[in-house]
Amino acid sequence: MVDMGGLDNLIANTAYLQARKSSDADSKELQRRRRSLMLPGPQSCEQLRQALATDFHSLCEQQPIGRRLFRDFLATVPAYQEARGFLEEVQSWELAEEGPAKGSALQGLVTTCASAPVHGHPHPFFSPALVTKCQAATTEDDRASLVKLAKAEVMAFLQDQPFREFLASPFYDKFLQWKVFEMQPVSDKYFEEFRVLGKGGFGEVCAVQVKNTGKMYACKKLDKKRLKKKNGEKMALLEKEILERVSSPFIVSLAYAFESKSHLCLVMSLMNGGDLKFHIYSVGEPGLDMSRVVFYSAQMTCGVLHLHSLGIVYRDMKPENVLLDDLGNCRLSDLGLAVQIQDGKPITQRVSEPPLAQRGGTELERRGEGCSFPGQTEPRT
Ligand code: ADP
Ligand code: MG
């Protein structure tokens, strides 16, 4: 998966390679790298175009590249610019900190809806019923729930004609090119390996760098032999599948997954700031200031809410699994014990007892009593 940060990085590095073009024109290595950063030609996307399900939610909401290209497309069509602008304002209201500015942003949104025309040329996406309700809204709660409704109406509008036009536009061609690009297989040769960041039950986690872009990640290497011995294969697969589904700034995200002869490798967001256990017990006086407790708790709660919205139960909340990045934001990591709820059935197994259907039915010794490969955390600087 190429995230938007990765995309910016890729663009920056392409520019860098471009800049060096004249001085190093002969370098074969450089030419090879430059080629590897180029998007595949449109003709190589036809197969994917036929195969890919054109689902609005997945293409234009869930996937960062699709979301951005869809918004770029909307900006080029005058009739859709209003919808795009409204969604942007809703988003900045949603992300705004509590306070008077947030209140006035909300008021502004409701006023926009309330002043939409309903007779003559009715508004293209706000229903007359919504407009009337917005005119009568008095409380903050009313306003907030009306804005949610308004957002849903805009999304319903966009899923129809605008989405069909997007699929026929060069923006969707570009999306397919990115998809084909990200589907290229990677191997350990794609990365430069750096220092060990920590040790897990099935192997080390190392810092790695994508050779062609310079972007840094953490690579969790799961030793195949150890996995086999401990019946952990299904579990590793489940961890990968769950990581593939999550998309939250509060959970480590999976960038690549591949296997070498000896390891299964999960390449994830690099969290350079150490884990919470290290910060609680090993930095200065034991403990954390209340303001930090509130901050981390809020971020962890957002991460857990995201998992719950996907029907995933985390089951491994502890300070060593909450990792900090360079900026001091935290993410939940280690989804090795997370489970997906199947058909709404409650989870009844203990954590050391994996669900039979999902994990092969063998006792998971890894974390239970007598565990021979305990997950340990090495403090990082
Ligand atoms: P396990 O599932 O075996 O417990 P973890 O996923 O918890 O393995 O990883 C083991 C250790 O590696 C962690 O405690 C942490 O110190 C380090 N680590 C894991 N993921 C990252 C990451 N994304 N960035 C930096 N360090 C990490
Ligand atoms: Mg762990």
UniProtKB/TrEMBL annotation:
Localization (cell): Membrane
Provenance organism: Cervus elaphus hippelaphus
The EC number(s) this enzyme carries: 2.7.11.-
UniProt-annotated stretches for the region Disordered: 351-381
Domain Protein kinase, chain residue ranges per copy: 191-381
An MF annotation (GO) of this entry: ATP binding
Lineage: Eukaryota, Metazoa, Chordata, Craniata, Vertebrata
Topological type in the membrane: Lipid-anchor
Record's catalysed reaction(s): L-seryl-[rhodopsin] + ATP = O-phospho-L-seryl-[rhodopsin] + ADP + H(+); L-threonyl-[rhodopsin] + ATP = O-phospho-L-threonyl-[rhodopsin] + ADP + H(+)
Function: Retina-specific kinase involved in the shutoff of the photoresponse and adaptation to changing light conditions via cone opsin phosphorylation, including rhodopsin (RHO).
Chief place of localization: membrane
Protein name (Swiss-Prot/TrEMBL): G protein-coupled receptor kinase
GO cellular component, one term: membrane
